[in-house]
């Protein structure tokens, strides 16, 4: 028998409570969980974007055991040269990196953004994410997702304050006027500086990076830099918990799509353990039911939930 508690469903057979919808993944836990993961990312880093579905999968299947805390760090993309020639060379390298990452992983990230947009102040994007977090971790997490969608899927300049404000308007429960003030506040500056300090203290040299901490405060965290198979992350959590993990069932696919509004086939493949072919067939079925629209990209299709109001490409 199952009992429902807001965004969670408590499964008597499993003896744990599981997320009932995607909103549950962003709620601040009421009690300490046995494992805390510190995630270090750069919002402009394509490899960090590739990690996104694996992190969501950990939250969906093992949220009973795991809390994830995000730290905004910086890669080479945040260190810009002064000359136009060197800047042009860097933009070309970033574009190639985006396209190569997309081809290798299947996670869409269009390198054309570096040719079409003048992303010369990446610091602004980081500051915006910390400003959003001042309204709570759930708001901050949803804002981070929206910002990365704007960059990787819509080719928008997330180092532009107007783009960040437009992203904020699409976050339920977010105070946009407060966000505008916080974009220029000392509190956001201090929060970003705190993330930088933590990155340095943890000796994080490569992004993305995950550091796993267990209950024993005397034990150092286990640092995992770069990408590994999903099973590796699960094994680390199980070792820290000290017993076999109970896995929650997946959130309904239609709930996942409606919550994020735009998703990639790669994300669905990772989250639901489906082949890319099976994902495409499933999404075609939803298209026939007029629930989603398909958006062709260089690396397959994106799928947009149809009940969401159409957004003008000129504004977002």
Automatic annotation (TrEMBL):
Cell compartment(s), UniProt: Cytoplasm
GO molecular function terms listed in the Swiss-Prot or TrEMBL record: kinase activity
Superkingdom in the source lineage: Bacteria
Cytoplasm listed as a keyword: yes
UniProt keywords, alphabetically: Cytoplasm, Kinase, Transferase
GO cellular component, one term: cytoplasm
Pfam family, one: Thioredoxin_5
Oligomeric and partner information: Interacts with Spx.
Family label: Belongs to the SpxH family.
PANTHER family reported in the protein's UniProt record: CLPXP ADAPTER PROTEIN SPXH (PTHR13887:SF47), GLUTATHIONE S-TRANSFERASE KAPPA (PTHR13887)
Function in brief: Adapter protein required for efficient degradation of Spx by ClpXP under non-stress conditions. Interaction with Spx stabilizes Spx and exposes the C-terminus of Spx for recognition and proteolysis by ClpXP.
This protein's name: ClpXP adapter protein SpxH
Gene: spxH
């Amino acid at each position: 028998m199952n009992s429902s508690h807001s965004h969670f469903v408590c499964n008597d057979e499993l003896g744990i409570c599981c997320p009932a919808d995607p909103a549950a993944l962003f709620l601040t836990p009421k009690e300490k969980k046995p494992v805390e993961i510190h995630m270090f990312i750069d919002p402009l880093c394509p490899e960090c974007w590739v990690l996104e579905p694996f992190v969501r999968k950990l939250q969906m299947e093992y949220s009973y055991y795991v809390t994830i805390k995000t730290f905004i760090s910086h890669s080479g993309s945040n260190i810009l040269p002064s000359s136009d020639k060197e800047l042009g060379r860097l933009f070309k390298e970033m574009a190639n990196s985006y396209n190569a990452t997309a081809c290798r992983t299947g996670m869409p990230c269009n390198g054309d953004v570096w040719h079409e947009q003048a992303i010369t102040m990446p610091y602004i994007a980081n500051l915006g994410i910390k400003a959003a977090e001042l309204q709570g971790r759930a708001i901050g997490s949803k804002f981070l997702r929206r910002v990365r969608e704007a960059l990787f899927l819509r080719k928008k300049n997330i180092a532009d304050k107007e783009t960040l404000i437009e992203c904020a308007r699409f976050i339920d429960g977010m105070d946009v006027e407060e966000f505008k003030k916080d974009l220029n506040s000392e509190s956001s500056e201090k929060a970003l500086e705190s993330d930088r300090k933590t990155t340095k203290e943890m000796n994080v040299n490569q992004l993305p990076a995950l550091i796993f901490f267990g209950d024993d405060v005397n034990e150092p965290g286990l640092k995992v830099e770069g990408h590994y198979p999903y099973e590796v992350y699960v094994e680390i959590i199980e070792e820290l918990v000290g017993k076999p993990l109970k896995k929650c069932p997946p959130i309904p696919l239609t709930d996942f799509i409606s919550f994020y509004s735009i998703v990639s086939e790669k994300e669905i493949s990772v989250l639901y353990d489906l082949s890319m072919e099976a994902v495409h067939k499933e999404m075609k079925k939803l298209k026939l039911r007029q629930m989603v629209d398909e958006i062709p990209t260089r690396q397959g299709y994106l799928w947009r939930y149809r009940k969401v109001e159409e957004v003008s490409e000129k504004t977002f």
